[in-house]
Design goal:
It is a single chain. By secondary structure, the chain is an alpha+beta fold. The protein has a single domain, classed as Elongation Factor Tu (Ef-tu), domain 3 (Beta Barrel), CATH 2.40.30.220. The chain is built from two helices and eight strands. It has a four-stranded antiparallel β-sheet, with helices on one face. Strand 5 and strand 6 (63-67) form a beta hairpin. The N and C termini lie far apart (32 Å). 14% of the residues are buried. The model has no long low-confidence stretch (mean pLDDT 86).
């Protein structure tokens, strides 16, 4: 069995600190928003030597899911505004079968990484 992982850069697993799931009221498309308080690719300075494919790769026992973020944002803070706080990534899922596949991945990822579900 393959452990579920999320990767922006090949070989560097990332750990989201928050995942938010919602629906676009106008289109009905499912929207996924992920926050990362730490980006291992930046901490290890390996991002310079690895090629960013423009997508987020989610891997589990069913295989790979490649999603192209519709928005990404680096958030900085601290006294001088230059301390990395988090990275936010958002993408849309239009097809119900793709949503089902994503949810199977997220359940596996959450179980493997001690995450819980908070339906707000």
């Amino acid at each position: 069995m393959t452990a579920p992982t999320l990767q922006f850069f090949e070989g560097i697993a990332e750990d989201p600190s928050n995942v938010s799931l919602r629906s676009d009221k106008q289109t009905g498309a499912k929207v996924v928003a992920m926050s990362f308080e730490t980006l291992h690719c930046i901490e290890r300075f390996r991002a310079v030597t690895n090629r960013f494919a423009g997508s987020l790769k989610l891997t589990d026992e069913e295989g790979d899911i490649l999603v192209e973020p519709s928005s990404v944002r680096f958030v900085f803070g601290g006294p001088e505004g230059d301390d990395f706080e988090r990275f936010e990534c958002q993408f849309q899922i239009d097809r119900p079968e793709d949503w089902d596949r994503f949810m199977r991945f997220m359940h596996r990822y959450a179980e493997a990484n001690g995450m819980g579900y908070d339906p707000r």
